[in-house]
## 1
Amino acid sequence: MIKIWSMKKNEDAATKKRPKTSAAQIRVQKDLTELDLPPTMKTNFPDPTDLLNFTLTITPDEGMYNGGAFTFSFTINTNYPHEPPKVKCMQTIYHPNVDLEGNVCLNILREDWKPVLNLNSVMVGLQYLFLEPNADDPLNKEAAEELRKNREQFLYNVKTSMRGGNIKGVTYHKVLV
Amino acid sequence: MATEINVNGAATSSDWQDRYYHVDQILDRPGPRTDPSFLAGDEVKDFLRNKCKILVIGAGGLGCEILANLALTGFKDIHLIDMDTIDISNLNRQFLFRPADVGRPKAIVAAEYVMKRVPGVQVTPYYGKIQDKGDDYYLQFNLVICGLDSVEARRWINATLVNLVDPENPESLKPLIDGGTEGFKGQARVILPTVSSCYECSLDMLNKPTTFPICTIANTPRLPEHCIEWASVLEWPRARGDEKLDTDDPEHIGWLYSIAVARAKEFKIEGVTWSLTQGVVKNVIPAIASTNAIIAASCCNEAFKIATSSAAYLNNYFMLIGTEGVYSYTFEHEKRDHCPVCGGEALEMPISRDWTVEQLIELLTEKQNIQIKKPSLATPGKPIYFQQPPQLEEATRPNLEKKVLELVPDGGEVVVTASTLPFSLSLIITYI
Ligand SMILES: [Zn+2]
């Protein structure tokens, strides 16, 4: 066998035993403890020792969704950050980029995810969806159509849905705070 | 009768004359490029054929090739791990398996086949996950070769081998040779844990699995893949609720397939098949037998050179790109200083038995050579003190007054993160 150990001796004393914490776990710790969230976003950990499952509540203070509280579940797997976190909206909401099952159309959650992105980028991206709903990437096609054609009616629908109202046969969750 | 072949007999009785004639040309005398520690002749041959224990991870496309190459170059004590059973779709390239083997564990069938074909070779199979095995298991090998298609499994074995390195024990450093292919592309690399760049160091270089924008899947499907993702990403949770999608369950794949076919019909898209469905949901990368052969051969040559010191080994990354003509190059991938697996170093931190967490944090912020602003601390299992987010800060605040000894055992690890640290710092806490 080649003598690797002698090569190692030449390196300055980088020979300490490394810890057992997984790379994913360290990365999640780093992401969470360096979160820099505005007062409009709040995380909640049902089990504070489980860093891989938590929720984020966004309470926009401007824009069409002002006055609502929107909660997303975050599930992080052991292949993070090679894979993005799984994020779902936990309420039925009226939004062009969120479908009735809570799937979210946000590019960095799927096709544009990169390991250099972090949980903060995802959370900021989610908040942006409430400030600037985007009719070009629709998941709720009717909502997107309404936003494009008739902004006044869309705004009215948003307000109705946030009160827990019914739009075209769908009853939305009351999200007003 | 010098040519008597004793199938599966002891190594000595099965070695017929000139069995290793060609390989011995390399092992019997030193050359201009051989390592100074190379001991030409019987000693190196004895090590390769009687002492060297090598672990092969994966018995798929690459694994079959690796196993055959190792056995034919003279490795005699080979261990093999694989968690899969043989599927009919494997038979086009995984040449150690035949139709009668479908459904049987790959590791066991591959071991049987190679032992039958190459006299004197002992292949010890393990049908299960690499994660089932602990440090003691991995410590018994001289070398590890991986032919895997999973990033997650590679990250695991890489971290395990890096963690295995014990400064008191030279034998604990196990060279890892990693091969991977994707269509006409492939790479082979040599990782000397803690010495050279590790798998995690190069994680950012990886191609990530192809994914499609969710709104395309939902609204404007154009490709058969879009229909399959519609079935797996959107329809599965809608129809099956919390039931976990098991990509190895034929009923689950069948369900997705039928949904995807209906979707494709609606949008007049052609090309949804059972195997494409399985391929998309399992993220199967197209495998070409000949690319596997090139990469497996490179890996095995490196294993041979490392085990025998008979020639300079790969330093450290070989890349093959066969998509536009043939292009290959070899370069030294640099170790990342702040690699979460091999980067930096663990800092030994001897502290008094009655120190509180708060005192430890103060030390970290004040100590000249560390000076970390607002550190957050955790053991491998759970948070000790987190600066953010507010709920976790509040939940861990009571720990500030606790003694470190109550939370961390002697010799235990604490992972420290802070925005002023590029990645993280590990402390090994000892009590004085
Ligand atoms: Zn590394």
## 2
Amino acid sequence: MPNDNWTPDQPLVSIKDVRKSFGSLEVLKGVSLDVMKGEVICIIGPSGSGKSTLIRCINALNDIQAGSITVEGQEVHTEKLDKLELRKKVGMVFQQYNLFPHKTALENVMMAPIKVLRKSKAEAEQTARALIKKVRLDGKEGAYPGELSGGQQQRVAIARSLAMNPDVMLFDEVTAALDPETVKEVLVTIKDLAQEGMTCILVTHEMGFAREIADHIYFTDRGVIVEHGPPATFFDNAQDPRTKEFLSQIL
Amino acid sequence: MIRTPAKTNLPVMLPYDPTGRVAADPIMFSRWLASMPIWVLPMMAACLVLWPAIAHAASNYSYGQATSALFKWMPFIVLDGFLLNVVISLFTMIFGTFFGVLLGLGQISPAGWIRIPAKIFTQVFRNSPWLVLLFVVLLALPFEITIGGVIISIPDWTKAVFGLSLPVMANISEVVRGAINSVPSGQWEAAESLAYSRRQTLWLIILPQCFKRMIPPWMNWYAILTMATPLCSLLGVEEIITLSRQAIEAEDNHPELLVPFFGFALLIFFAYCYPIARWTVRLERRFQVKL
Ligand SMILES: Nc1ncnc2c1ncn2[C@@H]1O[C@H](COP(=O)(O)OP(=O)(O)OP(=O)(O)O)[C@@H](O)[C@H]1O
Ligand SMILES: [Mg+2]
């Protein structure tokens, strides 16, 4: 159900006081953040601070215990949610690529538009080929995931997600499993996307990259957002001692 | 034991089982059977031929008589008897697979009212003695049914098929569940986040990936099932063991006939199941490498 009251000058993704527990372990302890259309935000923070959990709540892979998340004005965590409609709007790329190993790169990209969006095969294939070209993998259409390098697989995964024509993309440490040499090719792909105006929420450990492309940086620790701001302020003028310590370790 | 040859000398980590046990080998039986060298077959045949010569050289019922009795009855035992075992095993496998797949899919259903009964069914039939199930079915089913005045008698062997289908079904159910669970959860999540419905995820993404992985354990169960078909002789089904017994009786019940006749039955089962087991192990090895 599209929410008719939403207009592009309101946050595309709005997270308010979200709390999430796994059993007795409270992983998110009241997190709020807004993302405007076309904005690129980066979430950074130590391991286990709840970054993945947070972005998985946005496309309802995780449920939440309290607070609210809206995507284009539509509340995500209600009984009435049409998960499939939500997920058509929200693309997600994983650390482990998660390509479908029994399908070729092209099939990976064109399958969901055909099966989920009910596009014609010809149309889906045309879009898929264009996207594969866009992630600079032309020539690899017929390759199976097992025949591609990690960086190539990750770019196919990005193309696969884009094929659904989402309004916002979630990236969860998409370069963390890659060799240093191949990290760059994936980052370039994401940068292209960001520059085209795609709304992006990234969890990353690549500080240089975050600084370069993000409009806003959020630093999480132990389930709360400790500090946030535009990259220049955030990196050069961090206030909170926890942020300073984290930055001193990672930079 | 034939083991999958290690590609390195490094220690291999066994599949992890959260209960702390080392994960059971799904094709253990086939691995054991296939581990026998091919000359076991001629050796068994040789034993069979030589046995009467050694054990009963002095008795009045000669070696020659026993062997010729066996040869005389052989076509009857094989074509009437063993063929029925094969027929029973094939029908059982068809029914067991069909219902086993349904039950296995039921076991992973998100709906509790499907999942819980499916799990109970699976566990009950998987852990009941096969013979008990056979007897229950034999006694529970009528020996004839009347449809619109026409009396149709149900032959015993079809009841045996039904009885054997139950444990096979339960074990296939576990094979299906195990194969589906062996697909990494990332595959489910990736499909979910692409807005595939649960059913689409299962049929388009998950099952095609684990189909190959189900084949070796499925064949393993076929071999086990075939070996279990002589149980039907206890229900009076005229399969290989029943017919061998009848043949021995027709030959005046000489005790010297027991070893050649039942040894021959053993030989036939071995000859039938051994290639299946070899093939199973080979397939398992091949599918393991490529994922
Ligand atoms: N499905 C789950 N069940 C139970 N606990 C979980 C689950 N997923 C995550 N957790 C716990 O929640 C906490 C936060 O996990 P999360 O994956 O969100 O951290 P993260 O910030 O993404 O860390 P990393 O940088 O290592 O990816 C961790 O303590 C983790 O053990
Ligand atoms: Mg994470």
